[in-house]
Amino acid sequence: MDRLAEVLEWTATNLHRSPQVSELAGRAFMSPRTFIRRFKAVTGTTPHAWLQRQRQIRSEELLKSTNLSIEEIARRVGYASTAGLREQFVKRHGIPPLAYRRAFAAATAPQRQDLNCLRRVADR
Question: What letter does residue 1 receive in the DSSP assignment?
Fold first, then answer.
């Protein structure tokens, strides 16, 4: 695996950290300037913008698939506070995280009811 790909994978699994470009460049065995140039060539964006996007993606996943509190989700994806998560969420979706979770839960409730119904029939 190429060094930059390894850094991207490491960063995506360590969203709770706030690595500086110098740390990421060091992990890739590159100078910060070279790292930024290669990063943009591969991802099409800056390390900061990429990291923010990964945090948004992961927070969406956690809101959909867990009952974790908003505070815990913010912590796990690397926001210093729930306000940071909320701000980014509203900017991206136009609604706060809790409303997103409720909307997603409401949209998938019929599917879950169908699944429960199938399970009850299968158990007979």
Answer: -
CA distance 19 to 14: 9
Alpha carbon distance 73, 56 (integer Å): 11
Cβ-proximal residues to 92 (8 Å cutoff; 6+ apart), any chain? 56
Instruction: Write the CB contacts of 55 (distance below 8 Å, at least 6 apart in sequence).
Output: 15, 77, 78, 79, 88
Superfamily for the 1-44 domain: Homeodomain-like (1.10.10.60)
Neighbours of 114 (CB within 10 A): 10
- Residue-wise pLDDT tens digits, 49-103: 999 999 999 999 999 999 999 999 999 999 999 999 999 999 999 999 999 999 8
pTM over 0.90: no
